[in-house]
Amino acid sequence: MQLIVNGKEDIKPETEEISKNKIDVFELFSKYKSIIYSVLFYLSGLILGSVIYTKFQSDTLNKLILSGTSDELLTQFVNDLSRYSLAFAASVLLGLCVLGFPVINFVPLLLGLLSASKISYYYCAYGIKGFGYSMLLIAPFSALLLTLIILTISKSFELSKRIYDITVKKDNQAVEINYKEYLKSILIYGIFIVLAAFLEALASTAIGGIIAL
User: Fold this and answer.
1) pLDDT: is 189 or 4 the higher one?
2) Where are the beta strands (DSSP E) in the chain?
3) pTM above 0.85, yes or no
4) What's the rounded mean pLDDT across residues 25-37?
């Protein structure tokens, strides 16, 4: 918006508005930076996983990728729960470490790498049919797991940063750590992790038995 002052254009309000928008973008990034980083690292894992599988495709690698699959619901649930719990536990424990907040982003990186490797296997082995199978059974539950892990990472990132500020930087103005709130959130996410693992096991054994590759 421009104002006319003594025959001259005053563009100060417009400049202030632009500066305010820049600040808003910066504040938005600062507020959700752990989520943004997690998504970027996951996407990097997808690219890295595809490249690694293409370069090092072998029977040994294929067996490793398929090692967690089973036709029995209980066995598949245990396998999926083990994988979900490992990623969840890593996200939680890194939140309790002083330097956990910069390292924690490697969790979504590994998840992206594993998802891409599995999708690449089905695509290379079965073509478009295998890719469709992946989009039906792998992609939705990978997205669900990623969402739960990102929520966990968001809490853990904040906790680890506060621990760092208090213990290393000796920042007396650092916000006091509320462990009860953190543990309550982690417990809720943990329940959803178990539920997500069960749903994936149920879908893979039920639909997998119907769709033959």
Assistant:
1) 189
2) 3-5, 8-10
3) no
4) 79
Buried-exposed string 84-108: b where 16+ CB fall within 10 A, e elsewhere: beebbebbbebbeeeebbeebbebb
H or E element in which residue 94 lies: helix 73-95
For 34-84, how does the pLDDT look when each residue is reduced to its tens digit (9 = 90+)?
889 999 999 999 999 999 999 999 999 899 888 888 888 899 999 999 999
Residues shown for the chain: 213
Express the helix, strand and coil content of the chain in percent, nearest 5 each.
80, 5, 15
Number of H helices and E strands in the chain, helices first, is: 8, 2
CA distance 52 to 23: 40
pLDDT on residue 14: 53
Q: Is the dihedral of CA 192, 194, 113, 47 positive or negative?
A: negative
3 forms bridges with which residues in the sheet? 10
Closest to 117 (Cα-Cα) out of 63, 70, 193: 63
Rounded to whole angstroms, the Cα distance separating 1 from 10 reads 9
Selected residue with higher pLDDT from 97 and 31:
97
